[in-house]
Design brief:
By secondary structure, the protein is α/β, with parallel strands linked by helices. The chain folds into two domains: about 1-35 and about 285-365, no CATH class; about 40-280, Alpha-Beta Complex (Spore Coat Polysaccharide Biosynthesis Protein SpsA, Chain A). Helices cover about 50% and strands about 10% of the residues. The strands form two sheets. It has a seven-stranded mixed beta sheet with strand order 3-2-1-4-8-6-9, sandwiched between helices. Strands 5-10-7 form a three-stranded mixed beta sheet. α2 runs parallel beside α12 and α11 (about 285-305) packs across α12.
């Protein structure tokens, strides 16, 4: 009877309930996979590894963080730094490391006003220069989680494995922006790691991932999206990862941590660059990625519409509470697993606004054009 009396609110309630079901699926099936995952035992035969880092005007970051890569406790590895048209002291910093670290190799890309390029070109130069089959990628502003980072990230390679997805977080700083950056990174990781665990790998982050050199050349590298500003990491994984050839590795000692954006403007520019890759994902992956934030927005909006007139308020509050409890029980252990403590309380607040923030940034890309050679 109550549904017949108010058709509009009845429809809203149905949408509210359906969106809650979808949300519960993401939290209890996909996001929870990270905290429940047990890394399989591996017999690491310690294959030779090439670590590849692309750098453009990163002298200070290389000075601070490159030693954490070069000092790894691993028997056979090389570190290739591609100095991509740097105009600061990058070359001098790398030169000073060459004296101490024979494992370091430097490839230099010279600036040519007739030829502009994005990060993929520098990445390709590094891959061509690599001597080993196993390639491990990180960035110049990243610090390895432990001296066993290489060992951990490459331990999952066996005869079937061609891609290993890791976790790359951001360093803890004061301020609400830093908390939001860490929350955003954490939620993205819950999704791509969780989906990979569930057999649907769709992306990785260049701050911490590995794949086989032979896979890169067999699949013709970045062919099909060389013109895209970003995508040297996620689009390559999206095009070439499968349930059978992809594994995850996110134990704390195998994380990397990066320098976070210091200003809102800098972070927005970074997000815009990342979003340029989104249209090139496989259709099924795009559907799974978009469905969660869309149903989240629908969940909160419909809740407000229903609770103001107290329409079926007992059922509405019960459904809302079930979703929130599920969220908390998944996020807290997930944050511990990915070493992102201190953002649990903020997550409940950020959860409401992040779909709106991401939507505004994404659609603003349609009215602005990023320079093709700006890859960070």
């Amino acid at each position: 009877m109550i549904f017949q009396e108010n058709l509009f609110l009845s429809v809203v309630f149905i949408l509210f309930a359906l969106s809650a079901v979808v949300q519960l699926f993401y939290y209890l099936r996909i996001y929870s996979a990270v905290s429940r995952y047990i890394h399989p035992a591996t017999d690491n035969n310690k294959q030779p590894v090439s670590v590849i880092i692309c750098a453009r005007n990163e002298a200070e970051n290389l000075r601070n963080f490159l030693p954490s890569i070069l000092d790894q406790d691993y028997p056979d590895f090389e570190v290739i730094v591609v100095d991509d048209c740097s105009e600061d002291d990058t070359y001098k910093v790398l030169g000073s490391f060459l004296v101490k670290y024979p494992r370091l190799k430097i490839s230099t890309v010279t600036k040519d006003p007739r030829f502009t390029h994005n990060k993929k070109f520098a990445q390709f130069i590094g891959i061509k220069a690599a001597s080993n089959e196993i390639l491990l990628f990180t960035d110049s502003d990243c610090k390895a989680g432990s001296p066993h980072w290489i060992d951990g990230m490459t331990s999952g390679f066996d005869d079937k494995t061609e891609i290993v997805l890791g976790y790359g977080g951001y360093m803890k700083r004061k301020g609400i922006l830093n908390k939001y950056i860490r929350y955003d990174t954490f939620m993205i990781a819950l999704q791509y790691l969780g989906m990979a665990i569930r057999g649907i790998p769709y992306m990785g982050v260049g701050r911490n991932m590995a794949y086989r050199r032979s896979l890169f050349f067999k699949k013709k590298g970045f062919e099909g999206h060389t013109h895209v500003v970003s995508g040297d990491d996620d689009l390559f994984v999206n095009a070439n990862s499968t349930r059978a050839n992809t594994r995850v590795e996110f134990r704390k000692e195998n994380h990397t941590t990066s320098v976070p954006s210091a200003t809102l403007k800098e972070w927005i520019a970074q997000k815009k660059r990342h979003f340029t890759a989104a249209p090139y994902y496989k259709t099924g992956h795009k559907f799974l990625i978009i469905t969660e934030p869309v149903t989240r927005m629908l969940f909160y909006i419909s809740f407000i519409i229903l609770i103001i007139p107290l329409f079926l308020w007992q059922a509405t509050v019960a459904i809302f509470g079930l979703r929130i409890i599920s969220q908390i029980t998944v996020l807290i252990p997930g944050q511990k697993r990915l070493n992102e403590r201190g953002i649990a309380v903020y997550s409940l607040f950020f959860d409401i606004f992040s779909p709106v923030i991401n939507s505004v940034i994404y659609f603003s890309n349609t009215t602005s054009r990023s320079g093709k050679n700006k890859w960070k």
